[in-house]
Design the sequence.
């Protein structure tokens, strides 16, 4: 886990130009029940209208920490997209992913606060409303799932690292943590999980976001059992046949595998023997369509040679 810490860009060897692109939006941006802080990274090479990635930190972290320890902003310099970094102000740094408010479309709490940041970015920062994507780790990953479920009209795709099913954290306490869910003790049928997503926005009839799941089998914060429960949930929502699952072993790194379910509305990256999976910006950008090269198409089972790869600290 990463403690909250201030941003000291130059002391960390980050150039003044690079640091200048990361800033906090301090003016009001809409309903914000839990007083989330709103940060953005705007590259000098921003392509307008800008594709936008919302990046959500884990518990015991912050937006500046996630900015420093993932590569979304560095890649934004290459591809010209905007990055929104919401930041929890709770003592443990967790997001609300379990209240009735956050689990409802336009209900309130943290999910609506993040959507209001996106709406602000569309109005003020040249964000393209047709190309908004969300990613996050642990509590941030769980919120990414909630946003994909409650706001399918806003987000085109989600990349979830060590997350949990939508509704799994329901009943969490004031610290927004549900120990039973985190331990993988909350299980439901695919239909029941799917109903929780549909209940988040009952009137929605359009195309839903595609989902990519990253999870370590030894995750010490959010049990790997939640990877399986998320597959049940999203396969039910998206109509995905989980039995159609060609897998590429050893991609993108040793002990990982890439599984493309039923043509690709859901993709899974289980990581054997891994605790918290580090963020893989390269594959996320491919998934979002921000980068141009498609994901590999695996035969039923194949084990390639592992290649060196840049990863984030998370």
Sequence:
């Amino acid at each position: 886990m990463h403690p909250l810490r201030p941003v000291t860009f130059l002391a960390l060897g980050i150039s003044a130009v690079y640091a200048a692109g990361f800033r906090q939006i301090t003016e009001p941006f809409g309903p914000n029940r839990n007083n989330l802080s709103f940060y953005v990274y705007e590259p000098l090479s921003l392509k307008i209208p800008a594709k936008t990635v919302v990046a959500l930190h884990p518990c015991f972290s912050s937006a500046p920490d996630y900015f420093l320890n993932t590569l979304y902003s560095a890649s934004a310099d290459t591809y010209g997209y905007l990055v929104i970094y919401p930041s929890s102000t709770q003592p443990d740094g967790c997001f609300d992913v379990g209240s009735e408010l956050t689990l409802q479309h336009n209900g309130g709490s943290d999910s609506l606060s993040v959507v209001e940041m996106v709406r602000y970015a569309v109005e003020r920062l040249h964000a393209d409303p047709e190309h908004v994507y969300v990613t996050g780790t642990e509590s941030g990953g769980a919120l990414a799932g909630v946003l994909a479920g409650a706001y399918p009209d806003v987000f085109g795709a989600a990349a979830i690292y060590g997350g949990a099913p939508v509704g799994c954290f329901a009943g969490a306490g004031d610290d927004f943590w549900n120990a039973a869910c985190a331990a993988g003790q909350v299980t439901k049928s695919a239909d029941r999980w799917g109903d929780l997503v549909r209940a988040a926005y009952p009137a929605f009839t359009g195309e839903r976001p595609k989902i990519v799941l990253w999870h370590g089998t030894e995750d010490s914060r959010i049990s790997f059992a939640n990877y399986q429960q998320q597959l049940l949930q999203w396969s039910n929502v998206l109509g995905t046949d989980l039995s159609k699952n060609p897998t590429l072993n050893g991609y993108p790194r040793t002990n990982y595998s890439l599984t493309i379910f039923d043509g690709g509305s859901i993709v899974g990256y289980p990581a054997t023997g891994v605790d918290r999976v580090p963020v893989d910006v390269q594959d996320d950008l491919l998934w979002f369509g921000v980068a141009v090269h498609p994901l590999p198409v695996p035969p039923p089972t194949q084990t390639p040679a592992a290649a060196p790869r840049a990863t984030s600290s998370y």
